[in-house]
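Students often ask why inverse folding is considered easier than folding. One informal answer: many sequences map to the same fold, so there is more than one right answer. In these notes we will look at a single instance of the problem. The structure comes first.
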């Protein structure tokens, strides 16, 4: 069992930066791939980025590549998402999630946080 709690969302102007954090409970944190998804009103949940169990492999949605960076600290049971050069289309609720296998499909994730709102104004 893994419980995930996100923090760090907020309101930022276009071109600005935000850093999201996700703290996990549970002793098996390093057994899971970790991902960030987002969901804007009226849209389906969308894969943003993921990182493998050891932290050596990362995967990104094309539109965020070069702007967003995912990282994990297995010693502290945390995963972060550094978001730079934010755009209004990045506005959404952002969720962290844990998956025993798989990266980009939401259905492969067993555990989800409650989400944190990111709003980017133009």
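Output (designed amino acids):
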């Amino acid at each position: 069992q893994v419980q995930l709690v996100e923090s760090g969302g907020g309101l930022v102007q276009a071109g600005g930066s935000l850093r999201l954090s996700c703290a996990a409970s549970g002793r098996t944190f390093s057994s899971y791939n970790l991902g960030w998804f987002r969901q804007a009103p009226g849209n389906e949940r969308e894969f943003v980025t993921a990182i493998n169990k050891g932290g050596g492999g990362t995967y990104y949605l094309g539109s965020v590549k070069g702007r967003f960076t995912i990282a994990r600290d297995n010693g502290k049971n945390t995963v972060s998402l550094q978001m730079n050069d934010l755009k209004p289309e990045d506005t959404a609720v952002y969720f962290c999630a844990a998956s025993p296998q798989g990266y980009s499909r939401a259905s492969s994730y067993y555990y989800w946080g409650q989400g944190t709102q990111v709003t980017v104004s133009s």
